[in-house]
Amino acid sequence: MRSYRRIALFGGVYSNHLALSAAIEDALGRDVDGMMCLGDLGAFGPHPDRVFPLLREHDIEVVKGNYDDSIARGLDDCQCGYTDPRDNHFARISYRYTFDNTSPENRVWMSNLPYEIRFRLGDLDVLACHGSPRQTNEFLWESTTPTHFLDKLATDYSADVVVGTHTGLRWNRSWGEQRTFVNVGALGRPANDGSPAVWYAILQAEARDMDVEFVSVAYDHLALAKEMRDEELPEEFVETILTGWWTTCLEILPGKERAAGRF
Amino acid sequence: MTKALPTVRPGDHAIAVLPAGPAARNGTDIVPEVELRALDQLWFQVSGTVCNLRCQHCFISCSPENHSFWFMSRDQVAASLAESVRLGVKEYYFTGGEPFMNRDMLGILEDTLQIGPATVLTNATLLPQRVVDRLAELSRASRYTLELRVSIDGVTADMNDAIRGPGSFERAVAAVGRLAAAGFLPIITTMQSWPDHETDPMLQDFHQVLADVGYDRPRLKVLPPLRIGSEASRDRPYDEAEAVTVDMMAEYPSDLLLCSSARLVTSTGVWACPILLDYSSGRLADTLDEAVAVPARLAEQACYTCWVNGAICSNMPGFAMEQT
Question: Which of A12, A76, B250, B308 qualifies as a cystine partner to A186, CB 3.0-4.6 A?
């Protein structure tokens, strides 16, 4: 099991290779001794194959997300569970594009990713997963995740700290005897807050005293938007990159989180 | 809307086979069972079967006179909430009847929102401004989401009121306007009483009706009919073939079913789900502690609707990861 003092945690990349590149550079300038990605490498953005070299070049461990699982195995959809016809329409476009533009080698590489990675941070046991420790495609939103539920997860899975992504919105909560959950947010698209910036998390621990810091990353989102248009991806996706407001995949948002957005 | 089901390999779900008692149906003497995976959803039959409306499609035939199940007190609910902390419950749902007929409802929500997210299934005919304002206060005071699920069964008063009773459309739509103005994004649920090809125009009409009262980004959820209770005579009962058999569960991801992750607490015991309230096969135990250890039995034809559509009662459908 690897040990870290200060680690950068990247959430869903969604093919946003420009944001990933900017986040790696940013993290390296913040004295981290490790970087990890919590999965969902593809979706939404352009040129999915451009993400993989960045991960390999910088020795970034990767947890398998539901999207990675689907693309690797050639499943019918991304396993997000949408029922809303509009969300499903855009999810299908995104999934088909990503599948068609991911090389067989990268699909094999993704198929070998683990569903969880455990590591030590200071004297804390950390479990890194994509959605939740018990289910890769489980959404853990701040407004729908009781503390006692998190405590049960931490107990059931023997972890002091659980880190995940999947929802695309960052949040964290600590309780009890130095137990913490962190949703690290996503690099792939903005946080539905009207800003084009994206987010990742840095966790640092001295013994059992942990600090969580969310880091905002400005990147060349105009260049990404151009690439998306050149690839003829839906203008609704481009709008999110340019404005910071989510326009699709809205059904899964709880009322509280959705009310904070525009759509 | 039929949800496409993923294919799974056998062995990833817990299905037992046992002799059925009086619940045997469909020419077989065994019924499938579903073990509780985790108690993620705790439901409360908080107003029993008492409702101010007499909807023609109500699967448990609620009405002002149906006192089969009675109101739950704030203390009763609080006792279950305390248990739920130990059990690691994730979400709380309140149904009836009409929950807002329960005079303790706002207090119950206040208690619930201190520990987790709450969803109320309501006909929205008992939501004057004073109540909406209090709901908004409760929502603002909590880190957790408060969801209002409003039942409206048509895009015109004629269409809705034929099912839900005179004046119910106007009152519900007006309440949605008040909820939207207070910052809520209520989930509008509607039972599909039209052919599939009419769904898209129907949803467009819903958008217009809701926009007219100031709700311009509605969350809409179309529900399939449950052909039991009043609905069996309004439209039709289930056909003989519409039932869940052991064979149908052999490669079915039971995580999709509400009973794999939920229990319903009532004034008189604990049920597997809110739909089977009128069936003895749905009653699992006297207490929540006992009920989490008892598997749900898919003994009734209403279970077929869930088998086809997934967990229709949840805000989000149940979904499973495809197995490797």
Answer: A12
